[in-house]
């Protein structure tokens, strides 16, 4: 098939959660013998240059570079309209023209859209089967943000979440099938009662790359991985350092906490002043750091979809202690493959158990890796992706007989 693949962020290089998923979708379609044209955005000349590597995984690509200052203006202009500001941030008139050109020049058999904010580029198309992978239901994330922000900022987040939810409902009527990354995201989608065909296919992890370390680890060490300019990561790290880490230091004076991730803001960098805490900023290879730690924590209280950091940690054989909110996006059983906590005391209890009981750490390391290799491998996920495409194609052709 000739396929147009649209995404809100360019799917290469696959260095963050959403780009890992979209890249694997593109890669799989290309390897299956389809002619794939990728169309998306870059936000700087440097990013545009790094995107060139996609050419080995598709047949053609269109990349439009946007200026974040202009995109911020687009967001602002939508504040007084019924449209979500997020749509403005990911809209480019240049990309829209390129999409029109591609649709005129090529006979596409299928359009695959990754993320609701990229759907606006093909909202007018009705003569080609259309597949939308929401990945996460972004509206619910914005509504969750509102609960953590002070007034009047909270009002702005709530307004955006409400607009996005309305937009998500409308998009269901424009696509033949819609998917998400987890079953609980699909529950939100089904709850809209639009009647659209829906399903989910999970994220995978490259367990040949994320392998257990062969050297020793520090038995009193904790790690966290994630981009630190992302509010849910920022919020949970600050909270962990305030409510959990001091209690651990009382029990284990030599305990350390390493925060691994790009773009830490000033308040996160300031954590370097706390005894035992290290904020690394950007690193060449997170595996070097994570493998040396006794446990990885993912204490996010705002989390939608799948936290790839959990999958990667499990694949590396590092026990995971997670909030229930973050863990629900992973196909794992609490206490068997992963530990979950709902309070600072529970985090302290679970971490202490791993520090003090090497056999328990070894058990979680093995069961965690075994679980992701069977339930979060990309071939399994992509088989479900293809099944959903086939279902959407069948629905389209039935409607247009």
Main features:
FIG137776: Glycosyltransferase; Glycosyltransferase_grp1; Rossmann fold; 401 residues; Sugar_tfrase_PEP-CTERM_Stp1; 17 helices; alpha/beta; 2 domains; 13 strands; transferase; glycosyltransferase activity
Task: Explain how this protein is built.
Pfam families: Glyco_trans_1_4. The protein is α/β, with parallel strands linked by helices. The chain folds into two domains: 2-203 and 378-399, Rossmann fold (3-Layer(aba) Sandwich), CATH 3.40.50.2000; 218-375, 3-Layer(aba) Sandwich (Rossmann fold). 46% of the residues lie in helices and 17% in strands. It has helices at residues 17-31, 45-50, 68-77, 85-89, 93-105, 138-148, 153-172, 183-191, 231-243, 245-251, 266-269, 286-290, 308-315, 324-327, 344-356, 358-375, 378-399, and strands at residues 2-7, 35-42, 60-65, 110-114, 130-135, 177-180, 197-200, 218-225, 256-260, 277-281, 293-298, 320-323, 339-341. The strands form two sheets. A seven-stranded parallel sheet has the order 3-2-1-4-5-6-7, with helices on both faces. The protein is globular and about 70 Å long.
Number of self-contained structural domains: 2
- Count of runs of 4 or more consecutive helical residues: 17
Strand content: 15-25%
Helix fraction by DSSP (H/I, runs of at least 4): 40-55%
Q: Report the CATH architecture of the largest domain.
A: 3-Layer(aba) Sandwich
Distance between the ends: 20 Å
Shape designation: globular
Task: Please report the total strand number as a whole number.
Answer: 13
Strand pairing plus helix content: what structural class? alpha/beta
The CATH class of the largest domain, by name, is: Alpha Beta
Could you name the CATH topology of the largest domain? Rossmann fold
**Uncertain segments:** none
Strands ordered across the widest β-sheet: 3-2-1-4-5-6-7
Average pLDDT reading: 96
Instruction: Provide the CATH superfamily of the largest domain.
Output: Glycogen Phosphorylase B
Major sheet attributes: 7 strands, parallel
The H/E string reads EHEHEHHHEEHHEHEEHHEHEHEHEHEHHH
Radius of gyration: 22 Å
């Amino acid at each position: 098939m000739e396929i147009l693949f649209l995404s809100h962020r360019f799917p290469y290089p696959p260095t963050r959660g959403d780009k890992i998923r979209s890249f694997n979708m593109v890669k799989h379609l290309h390897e299956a013998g389809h002619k794939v044209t990728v169309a998306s955005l870059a936000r700087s000349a440097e990013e545009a240059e790094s995107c060139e590597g996609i050419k080995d995984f598709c047949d053609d690509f269109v990349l439009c570079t946007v200026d974040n200052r202009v995109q911020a203006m687009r967001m602002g202009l939508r504040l007084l309209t019924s449209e979500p500001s997020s749509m403005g941030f990911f809209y480019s008139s240049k990309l829209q023209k390129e999409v029109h050109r591609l649709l005129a020049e090529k006979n596409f058999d299928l359009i695959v859209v990754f993320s609701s904010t990229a759907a606006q580029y093909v909202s007018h198309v009705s003569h080609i089967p259309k597949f939308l992978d929401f990945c996460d239901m972004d509206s619910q994330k914005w509504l969750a943000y509102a609960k953590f922000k002070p007034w009047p900022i909270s009002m702005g987040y709530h307004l955006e979440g409400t607009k996005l939810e309305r937009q998500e409902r409308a998009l269901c009527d424009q696509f033949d099938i819609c998917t998400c990354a987890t079953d609980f995201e699909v529950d939100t989608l089904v709850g809209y009662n639009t009647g659209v065909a829906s399903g989910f296919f999970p994220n995978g992890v490259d367990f040949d790359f994320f392998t257990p370390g062969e050297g020793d680890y520090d038995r009193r060490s904790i790690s966290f991985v994630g981009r630190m300019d992302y509010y849910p990561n920022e919020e949970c790290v600050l909270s962990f350092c305030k409510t959990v880490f001091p209690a651990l230091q009382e029990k284990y004076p030599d305990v350390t906490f390493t925060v691994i991730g790009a773009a830490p803001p000033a308040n996160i960098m300031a954590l370097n002043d706390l005894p035992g805490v290290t904020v690394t900023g950007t690193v060449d290879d997170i595996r070097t750091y994570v493998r040396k730690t006794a446990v990885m924590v993912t204490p996010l209280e705002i989390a939608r979809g799948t936290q790839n950091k959990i999958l990667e940690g499990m694949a590396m054989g590092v026990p995971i202690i997670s909030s229930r909110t973050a863990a629900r996006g992973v196909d794992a059983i609490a206490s068997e493959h992963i530990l979950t906590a709902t309070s600072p005391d529970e985090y302290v209890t679970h971490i202490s158990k791993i520090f003090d009981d090497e056999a328990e750490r070894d058990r979680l390391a093995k069961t965690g890796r075994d679980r992701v290799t069977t339930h979060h491998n990309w071939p399994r996920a992509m088989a479900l992706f293809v099944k959903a495409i086939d279902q959407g194609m069948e629905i389209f052709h039935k409607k247009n007989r």
